């Protein structure tokens, strides 16, 4: 008999509003028996139907709901969802590189698919999706006709699902470097060793917007493969791209050469220490970009993360010339937008700089969010003009 999951009283509200996660501690009782990773039906405390999803007894997220009607033809549902998600991106004008499937936001929990030119990079983060990898690959091949598909499921969250971290070619052949075009610029993406699935597509449109604020001397901190640096270089006299990773900086150099840029200098350093050194030297810039990795991946560490953000943004503001700009980001959903905005006000006071908030941005539209799921809305991007 297939699993039937009955929730405790009141626990259904969040899920009915669109969230897909059913936590184990929200469950009153489980009826039936099936394989782990099988399709389970979820009901409220009165037996009212809510939806179906894959069950995993090893995870705190017991069920990830993705079916709200009575269907159970999982293979066809996955194929239809992939097609719908991709069609939405194409309608928005995305073509060469974009996030084609964004997990819960596209009603395919724990599945991420990024398109890089003729290739796909995939992350599978749950047991239920892992067991259906063959069907997922078949659907992706039918939808995209890619030259190759590479799996980047080398993320710690899989351990919470009882799964190992894995990488490798799932279909066709995948080269070490994949050429893409972003914002009219040529770039090379390494899906085997690059961050996340190879590159941070969520900042694509924010990187283009940097052209509005880049001028004179630009400092790009935590530059990774140089997406902000290259866009800034189209307008600025000079760009210093800083990262602690030599591999990341070699990618910046490679991408600069692809576009014929000679005004980008790379510096391998700890950003916090470098900014303090620049401060001691009295060095300032017309534009400072801060796009650090997430300072926390848990809610319990959010306050510690805010201290880190406060430190780096205080330092950044001190290095901006009067009339210049600070472009600052956070990719941790545990640090909410109100928390981040308050931190920026504190950083302004600590730095002794007066600022105007010129623009507030988020992730690109190929990373849609669900109002019912805070986890899908994680990226904050503020542009501050230093007025004194």
Strand order of the largest sheet: 16-15-14-17-18-20-19
N-to-C CA distance: 69 Å
Task: Give the helix level as a range of percent.
Answer: 25-40%
Cα-atom radius of gyration: 22 Å
pLDDT averaged residue by residue: 96
Structural class: alpha/beta
Describe the biggest sheet? 7 strands, mixed
**Low-pLDDT segments:** none
Share of residues in strands: 25-35%
Please write the string of helix (H) and strand (E) elements.
EHEEEEEHEEEHHEEEEHEHEHEHEHEHEE
Write up this protein.
The chain is an alpha/beta fold and 388 residues long. It is built from ten helices and 20 strands. The strands form four sheets. A seven-stranded mixed beta sheet has the order 16-15-14-17-18-20-19, sandwiched between helices. Strands 2-6-5-4-1-3 form a six-stranded mixed beta sheet. The chain has a five-stranded mixed beta sheet with strand order 7-8-9-10-11. Strand 14 (217-221), helix 6 and strand 15 (238-243) form a beta-alpha-beta unit. The mean pLDDT is 96.
Q: Any key phrases for this structure?
A:
six-stranded mixed β-sheet; alpha/beta; 388 residues; 10 helices; 31% strand
Short description:
By secondary structure, this protein is α/β, with parallel strands linked by helices.
